[in-house]
């Protein structure tokens, strides 16, 4: 660990948790389409899929960010707004307001095939938590990122939890890492960042002066440190990009 580290921030998926999702699963949009019929919206699953992916693509194309992040809740809000019927409009206002979030959660839940911790993660966090403030910087959606941390029992280890979907841009955008450092009230050069992707998790935090550390999963079973770098004294680092969403 580099000297004078005063806080540690972590990537989540592929670093702390092993998650497997199937975003191409037809059952996702079948379930969502069936649910929407009870809200007065009649769309076939292939129509719904095309709408969802089209709005997602448009969000990214219209973004002014170098590394744009999509907003899953906003996608479902647009679909409901564009295809609502009189029946939909007569739904209780509170229920109608919650539908986009529910659909984002439903999408993630149906697509998820596996979610669990890598070995020794909790033991390591228990040790670190007594010595350092811990934060999360993750690419994802708040509709499910915090719930998944809760599901594996890690939610209470971290403050702040910085989720790209809340901000409209993804790693390696330095502002995500700066937000975590600001939330811990610690200068970036004293924050170690641990992740599993050479570009997003090493290049990104390295730019504002953090000390990034990179690890990669081994056969989906454990996370093995393979590289670290202190920006004031950089060394050659090598880390295989992860196929998992981080």
Radius of gyration: 20 Å
Tell me the structural class: alpha/beta
Helicity, in percent? 40-55%
Measured distance between first and last alpha carbons = 22 Å
- The count of domains is 2
What share of residues are in beta strands? Answer: 15-25%
Order of helices and strands: EEHHHHHEHEHEHEHEE
Low-confidence runs (pLDDT<50, min 5 residues)?
A: 218-246
- Under the CATH scheme, which architecture of the largest domain would be assigned? 3-Layer(aba) Sandwich
The major pleated sheet works out as: 6 strands, mixed
User: How many runs of DSSP E, i.e. beta strands?
Assistant: 8
Tally of helical segments: 9
Mean pLDDT: 85
The general outline is elongated
Lateral arrangement of strands in the main beta sheet? 5-4-1-6-7-8
Description:
The protein folds into 2 domains: 121 residues, HAD superfamily/HAD-like (Rossmann fold), CATH 3.40.50.1000; 88 residues. The longest helix is centred in the middle third of the chain and has 19 residues. The radius of gyration is 20 Å and the shape is elongated. The chain has 246 residues and is α/β, with parallel strands linked by helices. It has 9 helices and 8 strands. α1 packs antiparallel against α5 and α2 packs across α3. The C terminus is likely disordered. The strands form 2 sheets. The chain has a 6-stranded mixed sheet, with helices on one face.
Question: What is the strand and helix layout of this fold?
Answer:
Blueprint: E1 7-10, E2 17-21, H1 26-37, H2 45-62, H3 72-83, H4 86-89, H5 93-111, E3 112-117, H6 121-129, E4 134-138, H7 145-151, E5 161-163, H8 174-184, E6 191-195, H9 198-206, E7 211-218, E8 222-228
Helix pairs in contact: 1-2, 1-5, 2-3, 3-5
